[in-house]
Amino acid sequence: MDILIVRKAKNAKSGHLRVVMEPMRDNFTLRTSINPYGVVGFGLASVFAVTQEWSLPEFCWSTWLAGLVYSWGCIGTATMQIILTARSDKAAYDERLPFLRRFSPTILLLGVTLVSVSLGLLSFRIYSFLFGFYGLFLSVFAEMEPLSLFGRNGFINSDFFTPVMHLVNRFWPMVVGVLITNWEDFFRKNPLRRIFLPFQKEILRMHVMILALPFLSLIAWALWGDAYQSITIVLLMGLFYLLPKKTTGDNSEIKGNSNRGVQATR
């Protein structure tokens, strides 16, 4: 998006002031687009949801599972990338932390491995705890069979991983769809930022869907009656997979010769 920058300039010979208006691009250009891989994920998950007649509680748990696996994927790939690039990034480590220059690449690799694995395990525990809290919420408001795992007295007394494996066997298309849709996130250059991506994406998206669920359910029920659950799920999956994402491009470098100035002198 172009904006006009107005500035005052003084003529060196005449001493007169002039107003110069120059077109300038924003430092950050927001590009909104639909992820084509999201279309693939949407098609895969929605077909299974409709043909297997998922209920709304089942859809909620499938979304929970997809966010959990995505978070684990971000942690695992980030940890592996930090370890695998430790030797090649030694110069960057030495520049940021000069005391590391006294260590050999092998010692640096061992230290980076220890720190990255520890950080990965800590992040794994934090995300598991966070999704465990969301699971308690779902076990109250989105109970489903078997109640021994997903009921209000079931999930809280489970070992967490038994319900997860049950959900994987039942709702794996949702997980695969999310991994396909967001595969680029697992190859970002900055692995540390990748660990925090689930806070910015999946958890935020879960909150949006929780807010949208009652409204879309009511509208679908009013329009389609008993078939409202499948229709609501497809609409929610559209939000989940096809919601346009904004990417920022840094266009901070401005070439003055490429822009024509519109001058008004006085």
Structural summary, described in words:
The chain has helices at 36-51, 56-84, 90-96, 105-141, 147-150, 161-181, 191-195, 197-200, 202-224, 228-242; strands spanning 2-10, 17-25, 28-33, 245-250, 262-265. By secondary structure, it is of the alpha+beta class. It has two domains: 1-28 and 250-266; 36-74 and 116-242, no CATH class. The longest helix is centred in the middle third of the chain and has 37 residues, at 105-141. It is elongated and about 70 Å long.
Q: How many β-strands, per DSSP?
A: 5
Average pLDDT, to the nearest integer? 78
Helix content: 55-70%
The strand line-up of the biggest sheet is: 1-2-5
What fraction of residues sit in β-strands?
5-15%
Q: Give the overall silhouette.
A: elongated
Secondary-structure class: alpha+beta
N-C termini distance: 29 Å
Are there runs of 5+ residues with pLDDT below 50, and where?
1-6, 20-31, 248-266
Largest sheet: 3 strands, antiparallel
Q: How many structural domains are formed by the residues?
A: 2
Give the helix tally: 10
User: Could you give the order of the helices and strands?
Assistant: EEEHHHHHHHHHHEE
Cα radius of gyration in angstroms: 26 Å
Short note summarizing the structure:
With 266 residues, the protein is an alpha+beta fold. It contains ten helices and five strands; from the N terminus they run E-E-E-H-H-H-H-H-H-H-H-H-H-E-E. The model is unreliable at 1-6, 20-31 and 248-266 (pLDDT under 50).
Question: Can you tag this structure with a few keywords?
Answer:
3-stranded antiparallel beta sheet, two-stranded antiparallel sheet, 10 helices, 5 strands, disordered C terminus
